[in-house]
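Researcher: Last one for today. Full complex below.
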Amino acid sequence: MKRFEEKWTAWLDDQLSGRELFDFEASLPDKAVAQAEKADAKKLGELLKRELGAHALTNEEFFNHQLREKIVQENRGSSEIPTSTWWTIPRLLWAGTASLAVFLIFTFAVMQEKNPAEESQYLTQILNARVDPVVSPNASVSIFEVKQDRVTVLWTEGLQSLPADYAAK
Amino acid sequence: MQTEATLAQSDVSELDLVKRSQAGDTEAFDELVTRYRARVFSMIYNMVHNEQDAWDLAQDSFLKAWRSIGRFRSQSSFYTWIYRIVMNVTIDWLRKKHVKGGDAEFDDTIQLTQIEPASKTVPKTEALPHQVMEQGEIRVRIEKAIGQLSPEQRAVILMKEIDDMQYHEIAEALGCSIGTVMSRLFYARKKLQNLLRDVYEKV
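Model: Here's the assembly. Have a good evening.
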């Protein structure tokens, strides 16, 4: 126990003894005030116990009945007993593996499509550029490339203006 | 008071009920519910101060207990274990209902220097009427005062003062350290002393 609150609480509940008790009481600036506070806390505890004691549960049997119904409904929903939650782990594993596989296949397909090694520097530059949808909402850009002739055609439609950073260097 | 023999007997039988429940025996679980329903309901009622809500939360707590009883390893008593579920369910509910404790999380931020050791608590409430208060009125005063505590402080003071639980049992039920339990108890008592001094001095 390090903090004052902990020591004070332990002292109120008569949980301090020996050296700890001696040291704590010696640290109190006014032991009489502290003792009065302790007596107050005891009175508070007694009041709470007396007034809040046991709040009776009415219809106890119905309480059990309602709970049994809920458990039966749950058991109907799942034929497994409540202890056998292990089946969720392989299911999660399968779901995770399948998701990862789909992601990898998709990524591989995209990478194949956009393999920069097979693209000209100019084409890469165009592909990296983006048409601003605010400036040109209906714009579309198409690219045609004939590699053996070293020709690339950039076909644009609906562009209001060509941004400066689209210029090929 | 229970003798050691009867205590051991009831412990064994409780363990047996738990094992049977873990194997899917609903009757055994029903018996466990019967043993603890009154205490659980009473504790929740003192936290939320509404019979219907207390009923529903007690049902939820036992249902959660049924779902997870397979994970109970008998490292603590079943009672402490079920209390942990009860406290999680009830504190979550209180948070969702935005039941604000006047000094929610107060105990985590306050500085030691702000507390005068052995400081006298002064009642902030207005003077009582001269006539003797009815029992119901006292209860309402207490419930209102408890309503001003944070859910965690409520849980701690009720478990300590009403259920006579030990610090380590409360810590286990709330999933926090013993130091935190003692600290919360400190602030809960201070606050209740402030709010209820006139009540417990006159009753």
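The longest helix of chain B spans residues 178-202. Chain B touches chain A through 61 residues (CB under 8 Å).
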